[in-house]
């Protein structure tokens, strides 16, 4: 199944080495359809500028053959982006993903929070990209959900298994994000729900970690994180409530 219609490459090929509390039941998908769903979600989770709106038109035209629970969510969000007021969408995007920690798209934050472990977590993401034969461009951090989903869409064989393990390792963070977006009645919850429908079901241990994260938030330790998004030279940007 070709992904050639997709207009936004964020990754560059390198040297190849190898709603709310509702529980979503996984939907059977072929490898090609899973890759398409992940790339579509990656595009729809981008900042809603004119480029993203054009991509949303392409997504809406491409995902119709996917199983309805996945296609319906992706098509609904694509329509909201193509038909909505761009300025209002942009304001909502910033208010959601930049100002609410529970809604961050940076997956390592859920596990490592504001601690020095975040650097090691980011390194593991970067190593996974290199193992698959890709690297992040445009200055984005490698744990950004949109970038990980694009990597999942472009990887195959052993690479697909590596990215699948990466997503599985951060399944609790993705679930917290899904629940937080649902609580905010955010239109972008549809993209995260579509992704969840392509992943294995959430097991009991993951649900326990999700409950703990929702109740307590990730660990906090404002050391060694200057330069990361949300943190100024003095670290004050990280002092925000878990909300």
TrEMBL record:
Q: Which UniProt keywords apply?
A: Nitrate assimilation
Task: Check the record and name the Gene3D superfamilies matching this protein.
Answer: TorD-like
The positions making up the signal sequence are none
Q: Which PANTHER family match?
A: NITRATE REDUCTASE MOLYBDENUM COFACTOR ASSEMBLY CHAPERONE, NITRATE REDUCTASE MOLYBDENUM COFACTOR ASSEMBLY CHAPERONE NARJ
State what protein this is by name.
Nitrate reductase molybdenum cofactor assembly chaperone
Q: Where exactly are the transmembrane stretches of this chain?
A: none
Gene behind the chain = narJ
**Superkingdom:** Bacteria
InterPro entries attached to this UniProt entry? DMSO/NO3_reduct_chaperone, NO3_reductase_chaperone_NarJ, TorD-like_sf
Asked whether the UniProt record includes Cytoplasm among its keywords, one would answer no
């Amino acid at each position: 199944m070709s992904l050639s219609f997709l207009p936004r490459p964020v990754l560059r090929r390198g040297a190849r080495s190898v709603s709310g509390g509702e529980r979503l039941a996984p939907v059977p998908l072929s490898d090609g359809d899973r890759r398409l769903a992940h790339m579509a979600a990656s595009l729809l989770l981008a900042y809603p500028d004119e480029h993203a709106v054009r991509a949303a038109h392409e997504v809406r035209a491409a995902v119709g053959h996917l199983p309805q629970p996945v296609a319906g969510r992706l098509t609904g969000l694509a329509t909201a982006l193509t038909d909505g007021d761009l300025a209002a969408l942009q304001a909502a995007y910033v208010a959601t993903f930049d100002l609410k920690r529970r809604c961050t798209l940076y997956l390592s934050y859920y596990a490592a929070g504001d601690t020095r472990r975040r650097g090691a977590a980011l390194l593991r993401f970067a190593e996974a990209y290199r193992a698959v034969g890709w690297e992040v461009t445009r200055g984005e951090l490698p744990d950004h959900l949109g970038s990980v989903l694009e990597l999942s869409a472009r990887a195959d064989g052993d690479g697909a298994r590596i990215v699948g393990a990466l997503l599985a390792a951060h399944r609790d963070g993705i679930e917290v994000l899904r629940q937080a977006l649902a609580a905010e009645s955010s239109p972008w919850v549809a993209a995260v729900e579509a992704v969840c429908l392509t992943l294995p079901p959430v097991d009991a241990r993951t649900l326990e970690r999700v409950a703990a994260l929702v109740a307590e938030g990730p660990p906090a330790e404002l050391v060694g994180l200057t330069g990361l998004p949300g943190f100024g030279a003095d670290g004050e940007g990280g002092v925000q409530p878990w909300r």
